[in-house]
């Protein structure tokens, strides 16, 4: 019994029980993570999970069931249970459900990988984290932490329309953080990002981060931040580093353009969106520098794949072009509901979870400047980088973000370091104020995007570069 | 699987470790079977309806001074052997672990609360029927939310000879009703699905949504507040994760100072994992039980697992979680005790005009009646920590905020952003009243809940309106 056989049996059983459409995903995921603290390995975990999830559509109602057993009997029973659950859903029916067309292909896809991350000796990986955290501790950090994570996922997808797709996606990444503890507060600095930078790549990504080389500097900065002046409160010009801008895109654009949110499907939990489909193609989201793409085809970016989890091929699309909102993240059923002709952004966090609309790689196309040029062109402002806290309302409008570090910008030069830098605003007003954008793009990876009930953790990519925003409120504090 | 098979599997894993890792290997194994189901609705229709029957084996072992952990979903002989082989191999390649706290010795496992079999084996029709009654009770308003049931059966064994077995079952319902973009919410946790009344919750959510219509914007500033239990639940979660976490305490990242009067005398916090349905042991096999974290305003304890307890020279309090070496031990069933006599009864109307429906119980009404000018807050949303030590948190209100004037809810208010230190807001002299009745609020994951009465605080720092 192959994985394809199990998925096929589940789909057939769902159809036999009365479903008009069914699909099934078998997933086999291996996960490894290691954390280190103050020069010692703190925790090593290796998890392995394999199972099958089947989705059935009866009339206008969906059902889903998942099991960790790939036997023919278990797969068939899972298909029948998914159909029974769909029939129960019909007790509180919704509008008719349709699925936009996607070609029923037979295909294989694998992400690029030069150095198999699970094949790198544990001792080498441990040595890296131990050395980096020891260096941070030696340079003043009270708490020196390091982390890597690896996911190696194989999946097999079958649908009742004829899809038969297998994929193997290897993801990994790493990061270090130094925390200095004062009397009443803590200060943290991270490289290259808190809990790391990630991609659909091999261990070569981790090697390129050169964690140890940055350990001393971030430790010293975390210590210096304890006595740095507070970020002043008021309105000023704000320059964001690329890592923070990646999170800004994630929270105030990526989630806002999720079609399931726009349709109200997430209203009770993740929330809705301030966007109205009636304005698609016409709404001014940001300045003309703002060009956001939905692109799961970027080699090595964390949100890349060959096909999404309902069989739609990876395709690059515009979400915002020249500041105008033109596209959404969609699945086959939500797209049909919205009279759109494309899905392609549906993924499931493992075999036991329902596929749902998720970000892929949602990023900002490069601008014409460099960070140095942006600083030189700024008379009075604040530069902030590396996210420390993030909060945004349920319509994805009102946000407040905190960064690990800030710098005063005066007369085109970077000045004093500032502690506890925060900024707040309203999404579209903020994006309309962007007047300078760097070309120094990095495809930042976010491996911890929460959504859905039961909860799912998504892996998303966000190409971003430093940018400047005018007249932003900064320095919010308790 | 049955109790016997789960215990047998856990025992097999420990025996495999002994065989493949040598007689000196220390091992602990947890085998859990779970049946989780969640029926989700939006736009007043069920749009997602899921269930899963899963099995998981978690193993942690310590060999030659080195530690590794792993898990697997395959419970065949080959699957267990593979898990043990790779975890033994990983441990041997790891650097030494000088902080290994040893295994839990053989100790009695406390009796877990009885499991409601009807909840453990609930069918999708039963969840769908509760959704149907919620939707119907909302009087035509658009509704969204979920009804879920969870059943876990778990066995523990370690190479020190300690074993344990337990089951848990629970249910939860959480839904909103919507009117012109104004939402009202009703949320409950229960050990029995039969205790969840979809119609009652739907009517409550609808009443609050009706009362939340036509909100006005208020300027930011410090306001006196009455928090309903859903909002208080967020305070409890953040206090638990960041304050009463033994690892953060050891790292000096926590505000907690056992023995110090850090809170108002009205504040008593107890973690009570067996107060309703719950497993009787933690991830290390330590017995779970009630732990008083704050007593009449004085911090008494923080939660420990074996590792943080060893560092602190204390005993584990039974709060180990999988992955806890990194995240620390967690109190996940925290209760803010209600006032024994409750607040003085409301003497007049606590709501009026279009705001009628904002206040849903007599405890909250009595607290509102004492407020000269302040805000009634239903729920908090997207709270994130700016600084863990001072526990300064930013977030927003959600699902209904109202202005209180002279003891009466007078009108709905648009959502506000706040930036506030949670321990400071609950500090000495800051609590102006507590309801008598605690209400259990479900967390995002089963096994975790927060119980609280309504709470009146002297000041809460709102730092912006929803529009900026």
UniProtKB/TrEMBL annotation, chain A:
InterPro entries (alphabetical): Metalloprtase-TldD/E_C (IPR045569), Metalloprtase-TldD/E_N (IPR002510), Peptidase_U62_metallo (IPR051463), TldD/PmbA_N (IPR035068), TldD/PmbA_sf (IPR036059)
Keywords: Hydrolase, Metalloprotease, Protease
Domain of life: Bacteria
Domain Metalloprotease TldD/E N-terminal: 22-84
Gene3D superfamilies: PmbA/TldD superfamily (3.30.2290.10)
Domain Metalloprotease TldD/E C-terminal: 234-451
One protein family per Pfam: PmbA_TldD_3rd
Listed PANTHER family: CONSERVED PROTEIN (PTHR30624:SF10), UNCHARACTERIZED PROTEIN TLDD AND PMBA (PTHR30624)
Family: Belongs to the peptidase U62 family.
Protein name (Swiss-Prot/TrEMBL): TldD/PmbA family protein
Lineage: Bacteria, Bacillati, Actinomycetota, Actinomycetes, Micromonosporales
From TrEMBL, chain B:
SUPFAM superfamilies: Putative modulator of DNA gyrase, PmbA/TldD
Biased composition (Basic and acidic residues): 118-128
Spans annotated as Disordered: 95-128
InterPro entries: Metalloprtase-TldD/E_C (IPR045569), TldD/PmbA_N (IPR035068), TldD/PmbA_sf (IPR036059)
Pfam families: PmbA_TldD_3rd (PF19289)
Domain Metalloprotease TldD/E C-terminal: 220-463
Compositional bias of kind Pro residues: 95-113
Protein name, UniProt field: TldD/PmbA family protein
Record organism: Micromonospora tarensis
